[in-house]
Amino acid sequence: MNSTEPGDGRVGGTVDLGPPRPTLTEAITIKLRTPAKLRNLELLLLVFAIGITGAAVVLVQLGAIGEIDTTVLIYGAGLGMLALGMHVVLRITAPDADPFILPIVVTLNGLGVAMIYRLDLAEGLEGWESAGIRQMVWTAIAMAIALAVLLVVRNHRVLARYRYVAMLVGIGLLLLPMLPGIGQTINGARLWIQLGPFSFQPGEIGKIALAVFFAGYLVTARESLSMVGRSFLGMRFPRGKDLGPILIVWLAAMAVLVFQRDLGTSLLYFGLFLVMIYVATSRLSWVLLGLGLFVSGALIASQTLSYVNARFAAWLGAFDPENYDAIGGSYQLVQGLFGLANGGLIGTGLGQGRPNIVPLAESDFIIASLGEELGLVGLFAILGLYLLFVARGFRIGFNGTDDFGRLLAVGLAFVIALQVFVVIGGVTRVIPLTGLTTPFLAAGGSSLVANWIIAALLLRLSDTVRHQPRLVVTDDE
Amino acid sequence: MNKELRRISIASLAMFVALFVSTSVIQVFEVDELRADPRNVRTLYESYSAERGPILLNGTPIAQSVAVDTPFAFLRQYPEPAVYAPVTGYFTLNQGNTGVEGAYNDFLTGTANEQFLDQLGALVTGQRPRGAAVQLTIDPVVQQAAYDALGNLKGAIVAIEPSTGRILAMVSTPSFDPNRLAAHDTESVLAAYDELLADPNDPLVNRTISGDLYFPGSTFKVLVAAAAFDSGRFTPEDAFPNPARLALPLSTDTITNSNGGTCGSEATVTIATALRLSCNVPFAELGVALGEDTLAEYTEAFGFGTTFEVPMEATPSSFPTGLDDAQLMLSSFGQYDVRVTPLQVALISAAIANGGNLMQPTLLDRIIAPDLSIVEQPEATLSSQPISRITAETMTQLMVDGVANGAASNARIEGVAVAGKTGTAENGDDAPYTLWFTGFAPADNPQVAIAVVVEDGGGRGQSGSGNQIAAPIAKRVLEAVLSR
After folding, report:
1. Predicted ipTM?
2. Which chain A residues are within 8 Å of B28, Cβ to Cβ?
3. Which of A267, A225, A268, A206 is nearest to A415 (CA)?
4. Cα of B454 to nearest chain A Cα, Å
5. Would you tell me which CATH number, out of the four given (2.30.110.10, 3.30.930.10, 3.40.710.10, 3.40.50.2300), belongs to the domain B217-364+379-482?
6. CA-based nearest residue to A100, from A140, A31, A37, A41
7. pTM here?
8. DSSP label at A123?
């Protein structure tokens, strides 16, 4: 593109040189116009997402009780309005934000609510007893908090400043359930705290704090972590005194594994840390070192901790009667598989299956519930939505200009990917079953709040990325 | 940093690919295996959640599903449990299904291949699939009459329409209450099941088509006589020596007639007389004269060795092979090792009544889809032609004579020509007799062929006879058919 080229060809029309190419200044105008387009696309997708959720709730009612209950639809409409409100806030405060993130999250959250509500109907739960109603309230709370995050965090770089606060908060939240008095053990795992009528899983929020800390810490420490060290087997291994952070995180993960009895959370935190340190330092040796540490820790745990051992046995021999009949054995896993098989390719239809046979069908096993009623087709759609969400997060990592933002985006996106893999992989026997929640879908307030915050942070980060002047120069983006 | 990011992206994509693969494997490739797992209660619930079709007689249900508020959604009910239990069988949560419930399970649940289009339609319209109704050939009046006639006796009755093979009555006593086994409370079902299984009277056995089978006794003489005439080697007037005792070859045992004396007062006795008076000695002589091969050929033509599916599989009746003369003599009047079902005995009479044509016996009238379209309606089919029309007419005359002037006198019905033959089979030295009647009526236009068997000598040990006990029972059933 060059404005010094002869322009009479266009005007005269005798020589066809193809459509006019924008000049440099024109290119800038186009870039500046995109936000409206992005937001309009988001609005379109959002309306579609709300429509899908509404249709799902109606189908659930028709399938399970054979009539339409308008109260629940009104609540749902309220949530839809809240989502649209969020869209309006985005138009004002983050006009360049990624247009896919909000509709994806709304769709997943809506499908989750519909399925949880459907399970309530099967169990005959109403009012506050109903996990679906509670989930709707939590959704409202989570969306409000996400809105607050969007409004308060106008520049994500501020977060880097609070990295050590984030570390303390993260580790504090992680360890909070171990405090006597408020800590609570549910299904063998000590991951909850009880405050009055509310139980909360602080570790869910902790993962965000830790992602902020890792990003902030690694950006400053990457030089020493990546440049110095001894070479061994063609790889440069870190110095002993640089091993501190990885050992601390490893110990924290092992503490979760041993004291909170939760393999999934432990794996999640450690995986998050490894990926971020790898991206920050470009050193595969860190990953190998970390994996070695974790695998050996997990192996020792599987030998010495009976619950880890049982999880492995239930995974490998799910259909063996001794595992199936054992307390804490593979009963739930196998029933989930039966549910998935019952759904088959196209599913039984919402409200037509029997997902309530599986224990914890509304939380840990919601993916089996959805797989039963929506079939493989539905699961592929859900997995596709997650994949797109994660890809949008990575995209920020690719396009970002400041390394803190890039690292944070990658960390947050990866934590969703890893969590999806650990949960659904556990339900479908790719890996041993652990107690993580399916992001946005599963019943549980802490998980919803945490994941909505992640979505808000990614929205904020994506907006910043597009604001960068760099975009203007890359004419062939 | 971008290189690392790319790798992380690829790793994340790989994790998702693993999930795409694992869900596909479970929901597509392992579906059949997972559904077949006995621990999969969904399969069980599924079979209940579709409204199971009823079993009907002329539109009136003898088994039906009613909506209940348990996870199984529908409870199977039997309004006349004991009368029809041998026909309907039972339908249980975990002990399998028998009778028509078992044999037509696919149709009743709506999963038969013939109903595929209906299932597809239900999928599109979102309606719950419903099973088809199975209408049977049983005549409720005849069935009730047969059940009442047997009363407290242990035994069985089969009544067949000779021209079509349609089974009009199928009674087996003592019977049971399938409602107890249809309950949704597994423990009470198991208790009832164990109790029925432990009952020495075997109420769960449908004696008409299964169980230990019976010696046919003298009813078998009908088949032997028919074989003798149809083979062209004998006529009813051919005569045999008439001793009171016949020594069994290579044995000290002898054969006697049931009256202890000779068969009539003559020195020789015709086959016609021997059949009418049901004498053993002449039939022993006739059997040896015919030979094992001829008898084997005719028993097979009459249905021995065939597994009739009515639709429940009937145990094949059997005629022994490799017989020496003594064994052949005993076999010729239905002892030694001839084993039959009441269905088979009724089929012998039915074939004679139908001019020598044995029709495929069946309980199925039609299968009706929920939209009232007919899924299946079998036509009467010929099973075999054991004897010629001439032989059949000859046998009819002889059997009418047997009732009118002979040993089957208690089956006489005023104004109707009844063809019949009694039997009193021995089961060992001190064991009570098995009492039989088989026949058909009216002889000139047969509407029903029947076999009645009463176990344990009808409570009279070795003093009862087929004519005393079984013939009057048969008479009541025949009357029920004729007065329709």
Report:
1. 0.86
2. 344-345, 376
3. A268
4. 48
5. 3.40.710.10
6. A41
7. 0.63
8. H
